[in-house]
Amino acid sequence: MGKIVKRKWGTYEVLKEDKGLGYKVKVLTIEPKRFLCDQLHRHRTETWKIIEGSGRLSILPDLNGSCWENRHVHGGEIIEIFTGYRHRLENDGKIPLVFVEVQEGAYLGEDDIVRFEEYPDNWDKAWDTDFDSSGIKYSYYKN
Predict the structure, then answer these.
(1) Domains of the chain as residue ranges with CATH
(2) Residue 141: CA atoms inside 13 Å, Cβ hemisphere, count?
């Protein structure tokens, strides 16, 4: 197995990578009350298989629009994130959110991330929750 890399939101580990075939397999763990920020990738697609935990997924397939697709995801689900789609995943549960990510594309570098928000310096003071119009709990970070 690869080296475990720590981030503000949790950890990831690269299990396998083949640049010639254009794929990388990772295991990511998002800690409770943490999130992967609103981002997109220009050179790769991602397929996620949720292993444990649950969270709120937001995807914006049309960069010219404002129609976010929001839903709650659980263990066993498979999610496709296509090249150029903005996406955000947050752990709104009490246990770590663990998923396997398969990246495919011509370039799989960690710098193929365009971020649309920054991570807070103090997660606990910045954290708040609310409910959307359908009654689904979501989390957000106060400015």
Answers:
(1) 4-119 (2.60.120.10)
(2) 18
